[in-house]
Specification:
This protein has a domain at 536-663: GMP Synthetase, Chain A, domain 3 (2-Layer Sandwich). 31% of the residues lie in helices and 21% in strands. It has 22 helices and 30 strands. An 8-stranded mixed beta sheet has the order 12-11-8-6-7-14-15-23, with helices on both faces. Helix 7 (116-133) packs across helix 11, helix 9 crosses helix 10 and helix 12 crosses helix 13 (319-331). The protein is globular. The protein binds ligand 6R9. Ligand 6R9 is lined by residues 273, 318-320, 395-398, 420-425, 446, 516, 518, 530, 532-533, 539, 544.
Length: 664
Amino acid sequence: MSDEDVELEARLEEQEVFEPSDSFVEQANVSDAGIYDEFEENWPECWEQAAELLDWEEEYDQVLDNSNPPFYEWFTDGTINASTNCLDRHLDERGDEAAIEWVGEPVDEDNVTLTYSELHEKVNEAAAALRDLGVGEDDVVTMYMPMIPELPIAMLACARIGAPHSVVFAGFSADALATRMNAADSEYLVTCDGYYRRGDPLDHLDKANEGLSGVEHDTETVVVDRLGPNGDDFGHDLAEDQHDWGELMAAHEGAEVEPVDRDAEDMLFLMYTSGTTGEPKGVKHTTGGYLSWTAWTSQAVLDIKPEDTYFCSADIGWITGHSYIVYGPLALGTTTMMYEGTPDHPDRDRLWEIVEEYEANQLYTAPTAIRAFMKWGTEYPDEHDLSSLRLLGTVGEPINPRAWKWYYKHIGNEECPVVDTWWQTETGGMMVTTLPGVKDMKPGSAGPPLPGLDARIVDTNGEEVDPGRAGYLTVNKPWPGMLRTLYKNDERFIEEYWAEYSDTDSSNSDDWVYFPEDGAKIDEDGYITVLGRVDDVINVSGHRLGTMEIESAIVGVEGVAEAAVVGGDHEVKGEAVYAYVITEEGQEETDEFREEIVQGVLDAIGPIARPEQVIFTPELPKTRSGKIMRRLLEDIANEEDLGDTSTLRNPEIVEDIRKVVQED
Ligand code: 6R9
């Protein structure tokens, strides 16, 4: 490093508050600080500003119906179609502009640009094909696909005919697919033969078929041919209830499908996510509220304009991809990018190469990726011209100030505001973050709640805690993008998100408080620092995993008597999975058996849940009531001071476990 660089690093390290540049503010979609007061005074009507970003078939009567909390309804009696809003209405002005820039794995240089007209055409053909297969309004269509253009095409086709989609991340296992299709009674699946990973073809249909064999009802499957001849080796033949996507599309060439009028409160999609118990939760999002929320936040926070090229490196299989690759950006008529591959193939400058080539204006990624970039070194971004970038964003987990500053300096050249956006699958879109054209940034802190939102940090009694003290994050007013319920499980919806801090007997909406299960603190300026989950969910590389899900996978392995899973600190992943395992009598505690356990997790969930360490232990630390003390296990994983262990039934076990971990 030159002297100048050293000086710069030192200055950055000390700086705690960063102002957005004048040039950014001048052109920002939102730059008037009055918006906070305006929204507060004018709540909930302020959210008409979000609804106004959309084209409605039938105008709504009421912005919010809060007569039956927590079953809130937004934009009541309005009707709207999401695919019309993402496609048809842009055709006149932006028909020839790119809607999706798809960058494939660099296998045969087959990148694809889909203009709004082309995407519209394909979505219509796919909608006609799905309808012909029997998909009707309100039938749940499952999608199990990687980052290929057919995924958003199929999603928008479903939206057009009023069939909710349920996208299952392609990295999830066959079991995970079966569980989700069964839970949603989903009779249709769209999947593909395979895809590329780091240049090599990977079989996917095999996994899909295995999943289908665990589905309890009849199904129809559509299979996209992603690999062409490169997939021949997998030797797939389609079964009778399986159809080739390409043939279906060809048979419906030029078809036009009248978009179905959906009530604002009709379901747009389901997304299964991890929670405290083993069963994944089917989060239900609606058409009017969700689309308003993602469009408004895309505009206000990501500063998206139609002429932008916007790049979010998430996978559409997660909520970030739904909200901020597909629905938000397309509703605004911008160009949204999709990247099929990984950031390190063919080399570690892959993302920067893409940013340069496509002149991307925004980059929205995860702290885990930023920490990996940091580790790889500045030479990779330095090789590329990144001056097209105007704004940077992060999501998925807390970002440490060092990673924030690295991103700000080495990717944003100290000219791009960084938005650290806190939100969840359940919230539909961003909740706590700075408005980049209005607020200063504080690395490590997401920022204040967005205008019109009331988020507080409270203690276990629901009393607000003083600035600087750790507490629980709560959201005290409803918002349009919120989940409406857990699919077919209103009771669990109340139990999981509301019971903790609400007066559940009250029909007054003021008595209802949403609890996202995150710990947080607030500073004197109202900036919120999210500390992480307070339930049994761990966050590995920004992916939410339930410890119970992983534990049940492990105890499913023959020879395992009991298991406890916790998150331990990890330099790049944020958290990593640590599995403490008690074996059955007679089971040898060998490395081979460790491998079997790891395989059990891969089979049940997928590679994202791979345990970093499997630790054999004779016992688990338990409270007197028999609850496993995960906090202790976490501290052992992180080699921290153990504090008070007096409530343990078996305090001596802690030392034993610690010894085993240190020996490993
Ligand atoms: C969008 C998404 C949600 C959980 C959430 C929290 C963590 C997300 C964060 C963050 C700190 C941020 N989280 N963004 N923590 N700062 N900017 O990630 O949804 O997969 O449902 O995860 O992720 O713990 O509760 P989801």
